[in-house]
User: Which sequence fits this backbone?
């Protein structure tokens, strides 16, 4: 039913309207969502998650939205990227929709770190909190970490946003930055990497900083041109169904050096829009499948349904724990 609603109505509405009403709409659905979260507990180091299905960074721009997505069945929810200053983002239109794919040029709109700090003070929740952050200078990274570290369990460093200037960071600069950040953060560091770098280069970066990071997320969106976008460069990030092969290329290379979850925890995102893709990522690539475009195009039951499918697969194959799949 949601697919019909999405294809016939949502995909034809101006993106500003969808952005504005999307949060409250999901809020109402989450309030009346009577399914319990599917329990498939697993761990990353000493962090315990309720199931290995999650929302990657991009939609949950407040603690309230994080809680809603969790309530809809996601065991992992990463916040939308937080910057020091409030950002309006790029001009509209900034999302182009098609079947199971999106091109977005959002440009990291968010309320800024002070807003987040205040909201987090007033918010309590039971699940592991992961916040995505992006600084423009080392001082900014420091501010983000100092203000958020008591409210987070993991920082995901967004080194790979194609929609802002210097969003996809130079690899040498990234290495230095990661080493510097790990010396000031009391919380583990997680990297969000770009498909703009060939897998071997991303692997080289991981090799250089492995002792300073807990894990990585592969991949951010792929920069493409589209004349319908409102930003003057007409560049946006492609996500969804068609970028899955790019994700697999990265995983194929990185898993040759880091065979499994214990060697390197990986969250995989990029076109994971069907049950069999979720299962492939988990069972073949020993990575944790997380998605965003699938949720936006398939609707609020996306995470719950996928977690149910994974549970059925585990029962069918007589697998008793998620961690045993990941090893
Ligand atoms: C509308 C939208 C907003 C996004 N915002 C962010 C963001 O704030 N930070 C980030 O690291 N990635 C962001 N992304 C990228 C996603 O986290 C993800 O890497 C990408 O969409 C590929 O996964 P998917 O195909 O499941 O959507 C965004 C993607 C979309 C579609």
Assistant:
């Amino acid at each position: 039913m949601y697919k019909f609603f999405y294809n016939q109505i949502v995909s034809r509405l101006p993106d500003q309207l969808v952005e504005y009403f999307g949060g409250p709409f999901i809020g109402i659905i989450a309030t009346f969502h009577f399914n319990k979260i599917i329990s498939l507990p697993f761990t990353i180091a000493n962090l315990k998650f309720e199931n290995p299905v999650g929302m990657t960074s991009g939609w949950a721009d407040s603690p309230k939205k994080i809680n809603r997505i969790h309530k809809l069945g996601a065991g992992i929810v990463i916040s939308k990227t937080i910057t020091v200053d409030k950002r309006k983002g790029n001009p509209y239109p900034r999302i182009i929709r098609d079947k199971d794919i999106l091109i977005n040029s959002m440009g990291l709109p968010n309320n800024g770190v002070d807003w987040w700090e205040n909201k987090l003070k007033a918010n309590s929740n039971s699940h592991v909190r992961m916040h995505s952050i992006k600084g423009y200078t080392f001082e900014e990274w420091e501010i983000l970490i100092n203000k958020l570290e008591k409210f987070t369990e993991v920082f995901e460093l967004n080194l790979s946003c194609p929609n802002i200037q210097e969003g996809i960071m130079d690899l040498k600069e990234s290495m230095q930055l990661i080493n510097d950040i790990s010396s000031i953060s009391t919380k583990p560091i997680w990297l969000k990497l770009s498909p703009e770098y060939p897998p071997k280069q991303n692997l080289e970066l991981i090799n250089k900083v492995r002792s300073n990071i807990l894990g990585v997320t592969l991949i951010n969106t792929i920069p493409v041109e589209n004349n319908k976008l409102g930003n003057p460069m007409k560049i946006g990030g492609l996500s969804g169904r068609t970028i899955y092969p790019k994700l697999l290329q990265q995983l194929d290379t990185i898993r040759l050096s880091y065979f499994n979850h214990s060697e390197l925890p990986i969250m995989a995102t990029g076109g994971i829009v069907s049950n069999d893709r979720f299962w492939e990522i988990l069972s073949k690539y020993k990575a944790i499948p997380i998605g965003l475009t699938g949720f936006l195009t398939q609707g609020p039951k996306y995470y719950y349904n996928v977690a149910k499918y994974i549970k059925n697969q585990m029962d069918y194959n007589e697998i008793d724990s998620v961690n045993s799949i990941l090893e």
